[in-house]
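Q: I have 88 residues here and want to know how they pack in 3D. Can you give me a structure?
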Amino acid sequence: MSKTLRTFFLLGLTTGLLGLFGCAKATPPTEAPTQPQPSENTPDPEPAFPSEPTAEVNYCLDCHTDKERLIETAKPEEKVVSENKGTG
């Protein structure tokens, strides 16, 4: 075989093998180990969340509907100093 023909043959063989290995079936993910069941003698832990939801207090309307309070808490306007001097 000539050198060029051998190079194309090896290139084709390598491409074919990479294609076959790329289509191979992926290994299934391993299952996470399960935790052992608690024995009957251990007490159940208390629930993380209370059974009845508590009412949340929303102060947004208090501030946003009070005009005087809005004026007091408003950020003062800053005067912008222009860095341009004349035409450029």
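Q: Anything worth noting?
A: Helices lie at 3-22, 60-64, 67-73. Residues 3-22 form the longest helix (20 residues).
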